[in-house]
Amino acid sequence: MTNRYEKPFLTIADQIALLESRGLEIPNKESAADKLQEYGYYRLSGYSYPMRKFDLPTGKQTDEFVQGASIEQAFALIEFDRGLRSLFMTTAERIEVAIRVQVAILLGAKCPWAHRDPNQFYEKFSRKVDPKTGKIPFNDWISRLDEHEAKSKEQFATHFRQNYADPPPIWVSIELWDFGMLSKLVGGMRTDDQKALGKVFGLKRRELLPTWIRSINHIRNISAHHSRLWNRSPADQPSPPKQGEFEELDHLASDSFAQVRLYAVAAISQFLLKQTNPDAARNWADQLKAHASTFPTVPAVPFTQAGFPTDWHTQDLWN
């Protein structure tokens, strides 16, 4: 059963009055009004929500804010998250490019157009109808590929269309894919190819890399759309490592909370970076540790809500 939405429109002044009535401290109303014009009330709500009082009997957050909570703290969280999204975008780009190269090498060695051959992929991906969509996933993927290749204004893509009747080989085509397309294709690969690709990145279990790529792409999309990142539980979570599988990830293998929060994606991203570009991994680790140290002091809102263990920065993974 759903209800009609009957909440009234609120001016900036009304928004400030409502927040104050709920106990949020707003010492400088003029500055708060300027920032509400910049960020918007509902973006502020997402970041100020953890600062609300928790009602134990119902197990829900109330509309009232905890003592000492201020609007400036919420704005500081917004700015902290902006920087965090930028860091995750940077590492996602490096990982995406590294995976592109390896997929092109793996499939290109078989045939220049192996990515267009359904026989090169797992049956569930390449031949069976998905009951949710009523379509064969591979056919959907090819349609998207054709669209990217036909419409791209990249100079190399235009040149290829003008000079060749065949579609671009994988080592050309793959430069036109977005991370989602790359993720889907890796997920649809045959077991032997997934194992071979995973081995390049130091992974022995073939199911790890597809879920890790998918979760990194999910966080990349959240970041690209400027959504709240730091304290959410990602909808697409990576398969966790097993205890003893990777020494540097043992602390993640034993931490069920970290496995379902942002830290899990941070940790697997760092692990993959260390396999492909140790210098980039060191740089990203330093930047992430430095940024985490700027997390604002907010009542009842610790950085650990992101799943980062209290000693994460001392772990071998980050050093």
Blueprint (SSEs and pairs):
Blueprint: H1 12-21, H2 29-39, H3 41-48, E1 52-55, E2 60-65, H4 71-108, H5 123-126, H6 137-151, H7 155-163, H8 170-173, H9 179-187, H10 191-200, H11 208-224, H12 250-253, H13 256-259, H14 262-276, H15 278-292
Antiparallel strand pairs: 1-2
Keywords:
globular, two-stranded antiparallel ribbon, 2 domains, mainly alpha, about 55% helix, about 325 residues, single chain, 15 helices
Name the helicity range: 40-55%
Oligomer: single chain
Q: How many distinct domains?
A: 2
Strand content: under 5%
Overall spatial form: globular
What does the average pLDDT come to?
Answer: 95
Number of extended strands: 2
Indicate the low-confidence ranges by residue numbers.
none
Explained architecture:
- Strand 1 and strand 2 form a beta hairpin.
- Strands 1-2 form a two-stranded antiparallel ribbon.
- Helix content is 54%, strand content 3%.
- The longest helix is centred in the N-terminal third of the chain and has 38 residues, at 71-108.
- The chain has 319 residues and is mostly helical.
- It is globular and about 65 Å long.
- It has helices spanning 12-21, 29-39, 41-48, 71-108, 123-126, 137-151, 155-163, 170-173, 179-187, 191-200, 208-224, 250-253, 256-259, 262-276, 278-292; strands at residues 52-55, 60-65.
- The protein has two domains: 12-62 and 70-76, no CATH class; 88-318, no CATH class.
